[in-house]
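Q: Got a minute? One more chain.
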Amino acid sequence: MDRQQAIEAAARAVIEHGGPECRTDPKGVLDAMNAALDLGASHGDIEAEMKRQREQA
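A: Always. Here it is, folded:
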């Protein structure tokens, strides 16, 4: 998985998690976030990708 794919996966995981409603296990979200961060992504990168995915939906 490259950096961009990790960012996209992390954004998707956060969106699917459902925010405060916590519809899924947070461990999966944290794993996806950590994978993206380990590949050099920033929280801002993930946030921007979340925005892009939400606008695209």
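A: The longest helix spans residues 3-17.
Q: Perfect, thanks.
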